[in-house]
Amino acid sequence: MLHLEGLNAWYERSHVVQDVSLEVRRGEIVTLMGRNGAGKTTTLRSLMGLVSQRSGSMRFDGHDMLAAPVHARFHAGLAYVPEERRIVAGLTVRENLQLGLIASPNRHQVPRLIDEIAETFPRLRERLDQEATSMSGGEQQMLAIARAMMARPKMILLDEPSEGIMPLLVDEIFQLFTRMKQAGTTILLVEQNVERALRISDRAYILDQGRVVLCSTGHALLADTAVQARYCAV
Ligand SMILES: Nc1ncnc2c1ncn2[C@@H]1O[C@H](COP(=O)(O)OP(=O)(O)OP(=O)(O)O)[C@@H](O)[C@H]1O
Ligand SMILES: [Mg+2]
Questions:
Q1: Could you report the per-residue pLDDT of 150-166, keeping only the tens digit for each?
Q2: Whose CA is nearest to atom 30 of ligand 1?
Q3: Is residue 199 part of a domain?
Q4: What domain count does the chain have?
Q5: Where in the sequence is the domain holding 54, given as residue range(s)?
Q6: Are 143 and 159 part of one and the same domain?
Q7: Which tens digits make up the pLDDT trace of 19-64?
Q8: Any residues with Cβ below 6 Å from ligand 1, and which?
Q9: Do 53 and 122 fall into the same domain?
Q10: Which of 8, 37, 82, 196 shows a CA-CA span of 20 to 30 A to 163?
């Protein structure tokens, strides 16, 4: 589904992602881990076309995306949920969901898609007409994911979805990822909640100072506490 080779990214003169190659197969959950500042967010932003200084090659679902703008990636089936969520204040949950399709030719399907999304996200179903920013942080995170899912992406990039969320909702969010995977969505996840993420991941990559230092199965890394302590402590 995604084949990234030799990605480099810079902010001004600072070379923060260095020769990163990674692969995500159709239907997998893959986690990208690493300490603060390792380059995880920059890697996701580069995949979405949001970092202007970048090089390397990227194939997504058979398309060469090296030079593609953000909207072309979106239309090819790639979605991105940034860490800061960007829920729009003053709009309801339903209206925020509608925004997920504002740039899509499927706009006329909004009511049906909201019904479908509400099935997957029961917490949102009860709150469709509530002002979105009046919900808890975890509920807003679910909304951000649901809004990205409105476009029915083939693959979703999630940046630290469990950050700052109370434990009960963290459980729900991780269950949600498993359901999304079962429904056929491919997931690339950035998480500091390493143990939880590895438990649901097929494979994981560890980034350190902008480079991939390890790639393994979720299962093997879960057992490797020495590696976790070395590369994933916050
Ligand atoms: N907009 C920016 N301008 C300049 N430098 C940046 C910018 N964004 C990130 N950086 C730097 O790039 C490096 C990688 O940052 P990035 O946000 O990708 O790391 P991260 O692995 O996501 O970290 P965290 O776990 O803290 O979210 C860091 O040294 C960071 O300070
Ligand atoms: Mg980050």
A1: 999 999 999 999 998 98
A2: 37
A3: yes
A4: 2
A5: 2-77+153-231
A6: no
A7: 999 999 999 999 999 999 999 999 999 999 999 999 999 999 999 9
A8: 11, 14, 16, 34, 36-42
A9: no
A10: 8
